[in-house]
Each structure stands twice: as structure tokens, then as C-alpha cells.
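Quick start: what a row looks like.
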Amino acid sequence: MPPDEKPKPPPPPTLSRLAEDALVETIDGPVEIVKLVGKVMPVLTRFRDGALGFRMMREIRQLDDGDLYELVNGDQQRVRLGADHVLVRDDGSEARVADLKPGAALEPGWTYVPGYVPPDAPEYAREVRGAPWRRAVIVTTVTPVGRGPLYGFSVNETKRYFLTFGAMSRAQQ
């Protein structure tokens, strides 16, 4: 059989379950996952040494429909994810979206240096002014919002990436 006629192997299993309007942090900035289907795109990740950088997000594809949840964080950012989507907690453990409760602390995409205290200035949210910075994305609500199409992919090397929502997700084992 000629090489161009050989069937391609299936993509690796994915732990990502993003709704079509979920934004991922790419090298081009926030992009809805549905706009990336069939493409390859650098996505923001964290390396073992703690540095931020980009690795290739690949095999971006539509999965089966599934249960959707909307998460809202302390900054009022929202994201819709599938029940089985895997997020990384601020202690490094992993959690399925369906298992999260309000108050869950997730690994952030960026943070201030340890000990930073935001100034008591009107451009900062009242609840953070003058208080030591908490290095986490805090989930304030977890709401089931029905069913819908889900999207997944793989990430080279780190197998993790950041949503524009601010939290780190696990792409694959």
C-alpha cells in the first residue's frame, strides 16, 4: 500500500473536554477551541522548572457530546467545560470539573511574586486591596448548564496548558 493510502493512527486519548466557546491561551492570545479544530497551535504551558512557555497543541478535534458545567472564578471570568475535563489544583493534584466545589483553588497561569500585596487603589478589586496575594484561581460557582459538543487535543512535552479562565488543565496522561 502506498504511504499516502495508509490509515493514520488514532490520536492519543485526551483528558480535555472543552465547550466550543472555551478560550485557550495560544501564542496568538485567547482563541476559542472550535476555531482551532484540525490545526496545530502553540499553547501556553508551564515547564518543570516553573517557567512559562509554549508547546504545540495538536490533534485538536471534536469529541462526543457531554455534560457541560460553567465555572466562574473570583475575577468573574467564565468558562464552560465538560464534566470529565481535568483541571490542576494549586497543590498539583488533579480534579474533574464535576467534582469541583465553590472555593476550589486551581493552579494559575500567572501570579505575583511571593509576599506581594496589591495596593489599596480603586483599580484593584475591593477584596484584594491591601491583602497578601493568594496564588490560585478561586472557583466561585460550578453550575451544570446542559449538554453540548466537546473538544479535546494533546500538548507536546508538558501535557498541560492554560485556559484564558486562568487555570491549568491536563491534556493527556
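That is the whole record. The chain has a mean pLDDT of 91. The domain at 9-170 is CATH 2.170.16.10 (Endonuclease - Pi-scei; Chain A, domain 1).
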